[in-house]
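#structure-requests
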Amino acid sequence: MWPGLRLIRRQLSTLAAARGVVYEKHGEPSQVLRLQKLEVTSPSEYEVRVKMLAAPINPSDINMIQGTYAFLPQLPAVGGNEGVGVVAEVGNHVSSVRPGDWVIPVDAGLGTWRTEGVFNEAALMRVPSDISVEIAATLSVNPCTAYRLLSDYEILRPGDSIIQNASNSGVGQSVIQIATSLGITTINIVRDRPDLPNLMQRLHDLGADHVITEEQLRKPEMKDLFKTCPRPRLALNCVGGKSTTEMLRHLDYGGTMVTYGGMAKQPVTIPVSALIFKNIKLCGFWVTQWKRDRQQNREEISKMIRDLCDLVRRGRLVPPPCYEWPLEDFKQALRDAQTPFLSRKQILMMQ
């Protein structure tokens, strides 16, 4: 095709209705984010045009906008790393998806807080459309993190136990549900709060075996729990600080602690005795890097998504409690996403 004609066709195919939440510099989200029109064109050979359906607000999204995350996209950028959309149009050489398919991002930095966008085929993965929009929109970060934490560090069998802090987080709730489906006992630590009984009941309803506060974790009575429950082989740390040290005291000999977050913004302090006399192993995990390491061969990623969707269909994995906002109300959604103890996932609805 004559290059000039191709250019004219691409210009004619520009869609003016797309909108997105954009930031041109790093800073507090309430100050740097703007809702504005986005230019969207028909996809080229290996591109896919996607109409976004929904996208959550995660802590990593906020950190990325603030400029404190490990990976930062080139500015200006559209906010959001997770979500689900429906394929509207594909380029001539696209083979993995077709119009009508639901897709989610494979990697971070895609910019999902938008009504529509054109992305490289390799940046997307198809998911079944027989699951809810809410679970599809929140599938690629927290459930994937929980799946890997339970799969990659200790060989866990039915009857074994694990211990985790931040148990009411998105990852924590997914850990509870996946572990329950495998017959693994969970010891779940939460911070004290005004609605503690309701939170504890909600986690028990998800399958949590034991729910305790950080204060209870430090008490001598904790030893009574292990008269009926084996000491955990695996500890999952998303907090840091004193919470980490207290969890280590209860880890079994030769066990593993995996750190995947640092909500307390305090160092992970490890007693020397835990390393010498208990032979504890320490690891870190970042789901973004795990996926990037497998971009060339995505079978492990595909199997993980299939397994998670199977749990969803069986009613063994449900999305966290959420509140849905139209895209134009993103500022209120961000405010609630940063409110302590709210315990609801804020989701931006695009259509």
